Amino acid sequence: MLKKRVISAIIGILLLIFLVFSGSFPFFLTVSVIVSLAVREYNRMLNIESKTLKSIISVAAVLIVFNVYLISNDFNYLPSGIIFFIIIFALYLYNLNNYQEENFIKNISHQLFSVIYIGGGLSFAVFLRDLNQGPFFATSALWLVLIATWLTDSGAYFVGKKYGKTPMAPVISPNKTVAGAVGGILTTALFIILTALFFEVLNIYYFIFAFTFPVIAILGDLFESCVKRSFGVKDTGTIIPGHGGILDRFDSFIFTAPFTYYFIILLLG
User: Fold this and answer.
1) Distance in angstroms (rounded) separating the CA atoms of residues 133 and 121
2) Contact yes or no for 104/158 (Cβ under 8 A)
3) Contacts of 159 (CB under 8 A, 6+ apart)
4) What is the pLDDT of residue 112?
5) What is the spatial distance between Cα 25 and Cα 42, in angstroms, rounded to a whole number?
């Protein structure tokens, strides 16, 4: 399992480096593909069979990403309120045409949640890639989030495997331990603090960010575990050998990306 994880990680990192530096539009296309695959995994967990509904959810999620691409590149874009009205109205029309009295609210809630959670969360990858504010330039904000998220996951995995005894959330995810969480937090906090020192930008906000970021990453991981447990699945997919599905790999990033973006905009930039 570890060998598969390492090989998949190396291939993924090399591919990601190429795609991130290939330009804003190619990266938007990359994120759109990732979002579509993640939505497909979620649709599978929801047992959605309708091709029409699958298409609506996928297009809606990608529409959010596309609007973010327009915003981050100073193109004309639609206000977020209009985007969400279009998405909600499209889902409403589908569920009205396929009306199920007992499941109407449940169905539309699940569908809307998948669009916001996946499309909304992953769209911040585009924001971060194009962010130029304060000490963050070119693609540096995106790399900060990707590396710090990976370090949290890796630190928690290896420390937990070596020293973990007490489960952090025994009902939600029995394999996650308190020691692993501490290891992930300290690993990432050290990386962020050293990075800030290297670029001579360290201040109290970076200290707060350094210790808050890995906590957000762990909460994102736990959230996905809650989702999977509610659907009775172990992994959301098998597309990434050793890692599971797209959502298994990007669960923490969906939380850390928006958190970092707004932290930079409000405090670090």
Assistant:
1) 21
2) no
3) 179, 180, 182, 183, 184, 187
4) 95
5) 26
The pTM of the full predicted model, rounded to 2 decimals, is 0.90
Three-state SS annotation for the chain = CHHHHHHHHHHHHHHHHHHHCCCHHHHHHHHHHHHHHHHHHHHHHHCCCCHHHHHHHHHHHHHHHHHHHHHHCCCCCCCHHHHHHHHHHHHHHHHHHCCCCCCHHHHHHHHHHHHHHHHHHHHHHHHHHCCCECCECCCHHHHHHHHHHHHHHHHHHHHHHHHCCCEEECCCEEEEEHHHHHHHHHHHHHHHHHHHHHCCCCCHHHHHHHHHHHHHHHHHHHHHHHHHHHHCCCCCCCCECCCECHHHHHHHHHHHHHHHHHHHHHHHC
What digits encode the pLDDT tens for the residues 220-251? 999 999 998 888 888 787 666 656 788 988 99
